[in-house]
Amino acid sequence: MNISKMSQHYKAKSKQIVQISLVIVILFIIFLAVEIYNSNKHEQQIKELNSSIDEEVQKVENLNEEIEKYKEAIITLQRERNALIAEHKEEVNNYDFELEEFQDKLNEANQLCKEYEEKLNESINKFNELSEKLEKYNLLIEKADADGYSESLKVWLQLKSMGLNDYVASGIMGNIMAEVGGHTLDLSEWRNCSTGVYYGIFQMAGSRKTRLLNDFGTTIDDQLRFFSVELYELIPEGSSFYSLTDEKEAALYFAKKYERCASYTYEVRQRNATKALQYFTT
Questions:
Q1: Residue 199: what are its φ and ψ, rounded to 5°?
Q2: How do residues 83-129 score in pLDDT, each as one tens digit?
Q3: Residue 61 covered by a domain
């Protein structure tokens, strides 16, 4: 009984073992099948990846070929450039030399333009100064004509043309006014004052009168020409007289050195000089 049960029991166990073994075998087979499938799948992926790699490698090779072509093209261009430079080097050097010469000439021209501009400005300034002087002279002429002082104006203009300053010229005029103008600028009576021993606007006598009449003449213009010579004989250039800046001092100096008149007339001659300065310069 016990043996029969045990036999049945072992049979049942054996059957279970067989079943389990079958399950294990089946599972193993399934596992192998899955592995084989996965292996085939990975091989396919690897093939595809290798194919992609091959394609990229081909692209890189193609790109390298293009790069080589570009390198060759660049080398060719560089050779052509060097050849052109060598061919036209002399022309370029000549051009640089000509350009340098042109720049030098341009600088010279600019310098000349600058100098001419400065000279032009100086000329314009001088012209403006002369225009102002001319306007003043025109006004002075109108005033002198209206006042009957045309002969005084002629003497004044001659003194200024000799380069004498206003103070020295006025000092001389003050003396002439005392000699023939009645202490005014009306010198029209000089002829009436020249019928005796003395002659002219400076009332010359003796050898000075003789020299005037024989070598120069009798008109005011002749007397002024004589005066322009004799003045520097009696009062040499470089004398302090020509740099005086006070009309009264100039009148006194001229009275002593040129007119050599009586001392009691010094004061009136100085007053006359102030009148002349005011008339001709204001």
A1: -140, 140
A2: 777 777 777 677 777 778 778 888 888 888 788 788 888 888 888 88
A3: no
Residue 204 three-state SS: strand
Nearest to 273 by CA among 247, 245, 244: 247
Q: CA 279, CA 282: separation in Å to the nearest integer?
A: 6
Domain span at residue 271 reads 148-281
For the entire predicted model, the pTM comes to 0.58
Whether the Cβ atoms of residue 240 and residue 165 lie closer than 8 Å to each other: no
Helix (H, G, I), strand (E, B) or coil at 246: coil
Domain count, the chain: 2
Give the residues across from 199 on adjacent strands.
204
Q: Which of 115, 147, 179 is the last residue of a domain?
A: 147
Where a domain ends, among 147, 171, 188? 147
160/194 same-domain check: yes
Cα distance between residue 168 and residue 239, in whole Å: 12
Same domain? For 126 and 163 the reply is: no
Report whether 274 contacts 170 (CB < 8 A).
yes
